[in-house]
Specification:
about 120 residues; five-stranded antiparallel sheet; 3 helices; about 20% helix; globular; binds guanosine-5'-monophosphate; binds zinc ion
């Protein structure tokens, strides 16, 4: 738990969020400003600042994080239609909240290249 980190506070329940999945390692909740019909954020419960800060000590946690994506896609009804998983990282990546998170976006056709 890192002081003043909004996603740490969502993980612990200090700040309310619409949580769609939680276990001992990861938490998924709806984005407050959805960019698609389904927009879920998936975070490690442990504070990791970004993908740019990841090393092998995080491998188990992040492996687990990836392993629950299909389960969330299934329960959100986008497993068949498809979805996009985005990890904005650092300034050029457009990262605003500095607690590693994957955006699971679906329910509409995505564009490419991204903006
Ligand atoms: P980033 O730009 O860092 O990749 O994405 C941060 C995301 O967090 C944004 O899509 C933003 O809407 C979302 N967000 C920011 N504050 C909150 C909050 O308090 N609750 C929820 N559920 N989402 C938030
Ligand atoms: Zn945090």
């Amino acid at each position: 738990m890192t002081q003043d980190c909004i996603f740490c506070k969502i993980v612990t329940g200090e700040i309310p969020a619409d949580i769609v999945y939680q276990d001992e390692q990861v938490t998924a909740f709806r984005d407050i400003d959805p960019q698609a019909p389904v927009h879920v954020l998936l975070v490690p419960n442990e504070h990791i600042s970004s993908l740019g800060a990841v090393d092998n000590s995080n491998a188990e946690t992040l492996g687990h994080l990836m392993s629950v994506v299909s389960q969330i896609a299934q329960s959100e009804g986008i497993a068949e239609s498809g979805f996009r998983l985005v990890f904005n990282t650092g300034k050029d990546g457009g990262m605003a909240v500095h607690h590693l998170h994957g955006h699971i976006l679906g329910g509409r056709q995505m564009g490419w290249p991204p903006g």
